[in-house]
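Re: that chain you flagged

S.,

Sorry for the slow reply, it's been a week of failed gels. I finally had a moment to sit down with the sequence you sent. For the record, here it is as I used it:
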Amino acid sequence: MSFHDPTSDVARMNRHASHRPVKVHPWTWRVLKSAQEFSRKSDGVFDITMAPQLVKWDYLPRADARFAVAAAGATSFSTMNTTFDSAAA
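Prediction finished late last night. Pasting the structure tokens below so you have them in one place:
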């Protein structure tokens, strides 16, 4: 579930989910559903979309050169405004 690896579910969602549905591995789907629930229960205090900011603060590693080009065009998404379709998972 790396946002640095361009082939991961997270990276694919960052690239495509704002334009079309993205099919992900069932484990990824469960993590995202749980994160959405934690975010809802904490009124948004828990936020898995913080990764880019955490990288800036050096709490998460920066993408290495082989992933930097693919990550450069990625946009992030918010679980608060995301619908997870269990039938598609």
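What I noticed first: The first helix runs from residue 9 to 16.

Talk soon,
D.
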